[in-house]
Amino acid sequence: MTRKKTTLGIAVIAVNEADRIGNLLKIAVFADELIVVDSGSTDGTQEICKSFGATVIYNKWLGYARQRNFAADQTHSDWILHLDADEAVSEELAQEIRKTIETAPQETAAFSMPRLAWYLGRWIRHSGWYPDRKVRLVRKNCGVWEGELHEHLNVQGKIAQLRHPLYHYTYRGIWDHVVTSNKFSDIYAKDRGHAGRGFVLAGLIHAIGKFLECYVWKLGILDGIPGLIIAVNSAWYVFLKHAKAWELSLSEEKRMTNLIMNRTQAEIRINRYLGENNAGLIPHR
Question: Which of 4, 17, 75, 208 could crosslink 9 through cysteines, CB 3.0-4.6 Å?
Answer without folding.
Answer: 75
